[in-house]
Amino acid sequence: MESTLASTLSIAQVQAAQRRRATALAMLVLVASLLAAGAILLVPVVPPLTLLTWGLLVLIAWQPRIGLCVAFGMVVLFEDGRLDQLMLPGAYFYGGLGNWVGLGGILPSPLELLLLLTTGSWLVAGIARRRLDFRGGRLLRPMLLFLAALLFGVLRGLVAGAALNYVLWECRFLFYAVICYFLAANTVRRWAHVRHLITILLIAATLFAIEGAYRKVALIDSGRLGVIPEFAYSHETVIFLGTLLLVVVAQHTFGAPWWQRLFGLGAALIGGYTLLATERRAGYIALLVAFLALAMVLLVTKRKVFIWFVVPALVAFAIYLPLFWNNTGTFGQPARAVRSLYQPDPRDAASNLDRELEKINIQATIHANPLLGVGFGREFLFVVGMPDMSWWPLWHYEPHNNVFWIWLKTGLAGFICFLTLMGSAVARAAHTIRSARLPEARVFGVLALGALVSALVFSYVDLSLTSARVPVLIGTVMGTLAVLDDLTP
Questions:
Q1: Following DSSP, what letter does each residue of 130-188 receive, concatenated?
Q2: pLDDT tens digits for 67-94?
Q3: By CB atoms within 10 Å of each CB, which of 23, 117, 261, 365 scores lowest?
Q4: pTM of the complete model
Q5: 422-to-247, 293, 325, 475 alpha-carbon distances in Å
Q6: Where are the domains of the chain?
Q7: Residue range 153-190, pLDDT digits in tens
Q8: Nearest-5° angle of CA 391, CA 463, CA 197?
């Protein structure tokens, strides 16, 4: 009896210690990200940035997983923006020197250097131990096939005469997903590491939501930002905010540390407001589809939650729609997103027309190159005219429909590989929510389901895979999902 009690107490103590270490590491990563942001904002002050960089190098050399956590935290926390001064760290982190000197497609960005350094540290550590202990995870085959498709798209573009800088400019972000997948699969080894990622997303997304709310009230509504609502926030921001809301729901459904559940209530409020402020109707539709996907899983897994939360939420939304059908304010944006499918206002109608014209050009290009695609770095066909977007260098290369963009660049086989990878990952996330025993595993399953479904739906109508943030998110999520069954306490 005494031995059993002692064993139980020791296990509880170990778990408590692991939770403390998880929280401490998550806070360390976030503090490091914020300090890096502050140092970058003070560009003339080189020594603090240099000191921080060397400190980060030492930490990554000691524990390569820290590099992945920093990359994950940075993409959640910062947009690639230059209009809002608080987002300038993101502009430097994703673009770096290359964008400022006109060589954005050739010179590596700080994010790319971070990922390469993390990968190199992991390899060196394995070689030094004489045991690499490589893990491919449950999604290894579809990920390798997708990698082969990307390499084919690069080769196809170069052989067809595409300029190297345009090839790299187009495809580089998709390779982030592959790198982050293998980094996560091989550095996430314990359940505490999963808790780190959940905590980082929860806190970083909340900090961004606070900044986004400030941007809405102090910069957008006052006219100080000086841009139309379409460009006030990065397009892909809604994916992160929507995922935050689903994680908060998951933590109250499956369990989480008390401070995270309490923190999550405020995070949901501020995150929901910022999500409305973005005015991106594709984001609302993506979140709705992700919520419905989660609802289907809860119907099987947690029927009480489905009855007492999902059903009332759907009823409330059904009541909300007619009440806010013609409301054009912040709180009427989700209703506007649904209404625009049937009765678009002039702004939405113009956007819909742009997408339809672009769709015609996409279809023409696919019909002309159905099997091999055109390859990265090559323009898609313009059989019908489109509104001038020459301010964007890649408007002849990257259509808003990022899903069919994969087909355009990698051909039919590459498109099938992409859909197989995403479908397998979504199925894996749903299986984790249903069958996992640990609360953090099920919460991470919801995080993965929300991120993957939202990204896939959003990418069907808008740009997301052509930026740095979303590939890092989905690559990290898929790599962690793939090894959940192999983790140790």
A1: T-------TTHHHHHHHHHHHHHHHHHHHHTT--HHHHHHHHHHHHHHHHHHHHHHHH-
A2: 999 999 999 999 987 778 889 888 888 8
A3: 261
A4: 0.88
A5: 20, 14, 34, 10
A6: 136-486
A7: 999 999 999 999 899 889 999 999 999 999 999 999 99
A8: 130
